Amino acid sequence: MLLEGKTALITGAGRGIGRAIALAFAEQGCDIAAVARTASELDETAAQVRGLGRRIISLTCDISEPDHVAGMARAAAKFLGKIDLLVNNAGYACFKPFMELTLEEWRRTLDVNLTGAFLVTRAVLPDMIARRAGHIINISSVSGLRPIMNQSVYCASKHGINGLTATLAMELKPHNIRVNAICPGGVSTRLSEEAMPGRDKSDWMTPEDVAHTALYLASMSARATTDIIYLRRFGSVPLGG
Ligand SMILES: NC(=O)c1ccc[n+]([C@@H]2O[C@H](COP(=O)([O-])OP(=O)(O)OC[C@H]3O[C@@H](n4cnc5c(N)ncnc54)[C@H](OP(=O)(O)O)[C@@H]3O)[C@@H](O)[C@H]2O)c1
After folding, report:
1. 69: which of 34, 63, 90, 167 lies 20 to 30 Å off by Cα?
2. Beta strand pairing status for 56-60 and 31-36?
3. 13-46 burial by CB neighbour count: b if 16+ within 10 A, else e?
4. Domain extents for the chain?
């Protein structure tokens, strides 16, 4: 198994891409701390992970709330013993023309997508630094690589995550901690359905497609790494095309 004896804290693991990553990692021998706000969805993820024979703790937490995050990270570390992998996946999307965005929508997007990743990473890092081991995978988006109409704040948040990813990769290399990001195009989930209702998603990727890439990153040779993986629908055009 590719992740035998490893542990992972995954945010947004109640459904969609986060749940698929939890299951893909668990299938390869990894124990999980699953984070989201909705307990019933975490319960379902937990049942599926236990069905694969792995240990899991469900932690209800709003990652944009500093007090929630501190307690959540302590509980995760206590249950898992150590955190080898952090997947910053929880996200929020609000797609509309810039002038129609409210300040609340602007703040919510940055609070979850950017500040949430900051808070969780800061909570988990001290132990990784002390152990000189760890791997952080950020789930960004194609919206972090290029402009997309009506996605100004989402693009801003995902460009921010890519900047954070690259800078942290430099800062944390001396501590033997690797940091990379996946930038998926369209994936069929609740987030994309709510942000783009009615759009034909018949050839969109599945959460499992992204999970497969996360597993690839998590199981890379210790001698090799990468920075950002742009994962796109087979039917879409290449970057710059
Ligand atoms: N779907 C796509 O097309 C697509 C493409 C590129 C990138 N992405 C990125 O992929 C990631 C996962 O999205 P998804 O499509 O899988 O969406 P999803 O199915 O809606 O799942 C989002 C997860 O994040 C959790 N979450 C949201 N806000 C949270 C908060 N404040 N605190 C803790 N957990 C929170 C949700 O649970 P609760 O609501 O219970 O908290 C849920 O478990 C996001 O970062 C998204 O930007 C998605």
Report:
1. 167
2. parallel
3. bbbbbbbbbbbbbbbbebbbbbbbbeeebbeebb
4. 7-231
* Per-residue pLDDT at 95: 98
Which sequence positions are flagged as catalytic? Answer: 154
pLDDT of residue 24: 98
Summarised one tens digit per residue, pLDDT across range 51-93 is 999 999 999 999 999 999 999 999 999 999 999 999 999 999 9
- Rounded to the nearest whole angstrom, what is the distance from the C-alpha of residue 81 to the centroid of ligand 1? 26
Q: For residues 211 and 231, what is the distance between their CA atoms, to the nearest angstrom?
A: 11
Rounded to the nearest 10 degrees, how much is the dihedral formed by the CA atoms of 178, 179, 185, 189?
100
- pTM check: above 0.90: yes
| Residues 18-43 pLDDT 10s | 999 999 999 999 999 999 999 999 99
Please give the number of the atom of ligand 1 that sits closest to the Cα of 184. Answer: 6
Long-range CB pairs of 101-109 (<8 Å, 24+ gap) are: 101/152, 101/153, 105/153, 106/153, 108/64, 109/153, 109/154, 109/156, 109/157
Superfamily of domain 7-231: NAD(P)-binding Rossmann-like Domain (3.40.50.720)
Residue 81: predicted pLDDT = 98
Atom in ligand 1 nearest the alpha carbon of residue 210? 10
Distances 53 to 25, 31, 155, 164, 187 between C-alpha atoms, Å: 12, 9, 38, 35, 28
